[in-house]
Structure formats: structure tokens, C-alpha cells
Amino acid sequence: MPAQIYHLIAFLVAAVVVLWTTPDVKKIGIKSGRVDRPSDRKVHQRPMVRLGGVSIFLGTIISLLIVWWLGGFGNLTPEKEWQIWGVTLGGFGFFLIGLADDLLNLSPLTRLLVQIIVAAGAWKAGVSIDFISIPTIGIVDLNWLSLPITVIWLVGMVNAINWIDGLDGLAAGVSGIAAVVMLLVSLYMRQPAAALIAAALAGASLGFLRYNFNPAQIFMGDGGAYFMGFTLAAVGVIGLVKIPAFTAVILPYLILAVPIVDMSAVILARLCRGKSPFIADKRHLHHRLLNAGLSHRWTVLFIYSLTLWVGSLALAIAGIPSGIAYACGATSLLSYAIWRLWKISRQS
């Protein structure tokens, strides 16, 4: 069976599992009273079940297990197969942290400490940034710096995805687009292990949009956001950062630029105001777009267009055939979205 078939199977199985299980998860959440209630900082106006991450996690893991059972890991080296299980176990750990936060409302310090521990475990399992490639200098071995740099990257992306999960369909759509781009880049760069995980996550994320896009029927909660954030970051590490080329090293940061820049800007703004970076506020990009007069849907679609644009730039930089054409198309779409944003803001 051609290797690409396994990636298609991973995508479709994940999407089907999410579509099938989400209504049941919603029913369980309603019966147990596990709902996210409206507040001044939140956009939704009625209590919402926030356990959708259970479906996303199940869809991703079941699809990978089915591909493994079908022999889809047969062409992988032992190191690459171990990396898949390392990412899976790390994703399970972060999912449990998020689920515990959804159910028990953990303190910020407790969350951060446990996240660091799980990220260090993933580093030990091979999800590690071992070197960086610098133009004119070459490959620089990180040695002991590998652990803190990897932990910062993994924990940072987990929280970046969680922080943009403020509007219906936003985190799921951004993650789905990023996962599809990582899938294409990983396939082109012959990184089948990373591509399999990206395919499964893309199917789970985009399948979840059926119930999460505005008006949402269910939220993914911290469990879903933590799992998707870690998995995206880990795919970037095992599929791209380990390739000794400068263009490959920068691709994960470009693909995930929207949540990275949003989180960085919010942290900087909070610190400049003398406030803790962990105290939630309404300074995220989606809050600013809503304040500019955009509707809920238009705000989400605009951020989708931003994510698609940086993803298309990554395709072009990676040298994928027609990558430049994709970048031109995405630039046109973003230009139209910016024009709409300007027009709506003038009317409000």
C-alpha cells in the first residue's frame, strides 16, 4: 500500500471519530454539569459544554492506532516510530493536564509546573530540539541547552493555542490549517512520521469544526487546546527542526506565527502595564478585531486568512511545487480580508 494512503486514512479516521463521538461527549457534559458559564471576559452568552477535547484526542489517537495496526509504521525507522509514540504519550499527558483544569480549575502555577514536567518527559522520549542551523555559521549543537529550549517551545505553543481559544471555531480552525500545512511540508521533506501525526490532527481539528464553528454547540476546553498545541509543536520538532537546513528550522515558527505573535504581544503588553502575564484580559487579537467592529464570524475568518497566508509562505519557502502560486493566492485572500476589515471598522 502506498505510504500516502496511510496519511489519508489517518485524516479520514480522525475526522469520522470526532464527528461520531462529539454529540455523545456533549450529552455527557450536559448531564454532569461540566459547562463553561458566561462572564465579562467571555464572548458566549449561554453555558457551553467544554469537553470537546475528549473527541479530538480520541480521534487523533484512534486514527494513529488504526494506521499502526494496518502496518502504516512498517516503513519507519525504529527512531521515527519511537518519536510517534513519544508525541502520543506527550499529547496524552498534556490532554490530562487540560482535562484536569477543565474539571478542577487548577491554579496557573500548578498548570505551568506540570506542563514543564510533561514537556521534559517528551524531550527525554526524543521530541527534542538538538541543534539550530544559522546562515554563514552552520549547525550549532545545543548540548545542555536542548532541554530548556525544547521545554519553552512545547509549553509555549500549548499555551499559545489555548490563549487563542476565545471564539467559536478559532483554535480548531487555526490548528487545522497549521496541521494541513505541516502535513504537506513533512511529506515534501520526506518526514513520514511527522506527516502521519499531522494528518491525524488535521482530520480531528477540522472534523471538530462541524460542532465548534459559530454558533458553537460545544467547546474543546483546555484539554483539547493543550493537546493540539503540544502536538503541533511536537510535529514541528520531529518533522522539521531536526532537518539540518535553516529553511526547515524556521518553518514551524512561520506556520504557527499567528498564535506565537498573539501570545508574545499579549505577554509584552501585560508586563509593560506591570501586570502578571498569567492574568487573563481582553488584549488578544480576536478581542481587538471584535472591538474594531467585526462580527464574531468575520473575526474568525480573518484570523483563518492570516494563518493560511503564513502557511502559504511556509510552502513557498519549503520549495513545494506551486508553493509561490499558493502564496500569491493566500496573499490575495488576505488582502480582501484586510479591505473588509477596514471597510467595517469605518462603518462602526
Kindly describe this structure.
It is a single chain. By secondary structure, the chain is mainly α. The chain is built from 13 helices and 4 strands. A two-stranded antiparallel ribbon has the order 1-2. Strands 3-4 form a two-stranded antiparallel sheet. The longest helix is centred in the first third of the chain and has 30 residues, at about 5-30. The radius of gyration is 19 Å and the shape is globular. The relative contact order is 0.13. One of its GO terms (biological process) is lipopolysaccharide biosynthetic process. Pfam families: Glycos_transf_4 (PF00953).
Brief digest:
With 348 residues, the chain is mostly helical.
Helix-strand pattern = HEEHHHEEHHHHHHHHH
Whole-angstrom Rg:
19 Å
Low-confidence stretches: none
Helices and strands: which structural class?
Answer: mainly alpha
**Largest beta sheet: strand ordering:** 1-2
SSE topology sketch:
Elements: H1 3-32, E1 35-36, E2 48-49, H2 53-69, H3 78-104, H4 108-124, E3 131-134, E4 138-141, H5 146-163, H6 170-188, H7 192-212, H8 221-241, H9 246-255, H10 257-272, H11 285-291, H12 296-318, H13 323-347
Antiparallel strand pairs: 1-2, 3-4
